[in-house]
Amino acid sequence: MTDQNSQTLRLIFPQWQGGDNPPYYLGSKLLAWLAPPSAGPVEEVPVDAPTDVPLPVEDEMRGRSVLLKQMQEARKIIERHQPKSLAVLGGDCLVSLVPFSWLSERYGDRLGVLWIDTHPDVQTPKQYTNAHAHVLGALLGHGDPDLTKAVTRPVPAKNVMIAGIHDPLPFEAQFIADHGLRTCSPQQVRDGAQPVMEWLRA
């Protein structure tokens, strides 16, 4: 019998350009150092270390060309290993796009995404140039074409729960309402996260 852990790809992804936040680079490296040994394969997506050179805004997205190259490299690594599951050590929120896209292709409607974040990450370049705020929207099939084309099987909105969200911006609140996304507030999380439990049972 194959150990389930041996079929889990640990992907170290020190991307910082999605949030234009250099400390994410060190954070990913620290997570990789702190994590216990893995029974499965371990790979790292090549990411250039931060410098003093500002990231350019390309077609309304900061660091677009660099981010797309990193996404392509992540996809190549995942396809090479064909994992049943992934443990991603990032990195800003955009590191989740390619791994969740892969899992959506593999598991289809059986995949659920519990998005634990104070922000829903459903914006587009028209609202915000940093792509770390676009990832969940892209997973749902909405947003910038360079991101949505990386998601061949969008995750259905009914399969997504956002836990920890508070004070969404008007665009975010409208997106959540329009797509029927379920949410759980920080207070609800503190009180036992009943909305999450109900979503899991649904």
TrEMBL record:
This is Arginase family protein. Belongs to the arginase family. One of its GO terms (molecular function) is manganese ion binding. The keyword Transcription does not apply. It comes from the Bacteria. Pfam families: Arginase. SUPFAM superfamilies: Arginase/deacetylase. InterPro entries: Ureohydrolase, Ureohydrolase_dom_sf. CDD domains: Arginase-like_1. Keywords: Hydrolase, Manganese, Metal-binding. Coiled coil: none annotated. GO terms for cellular component: cytosol.
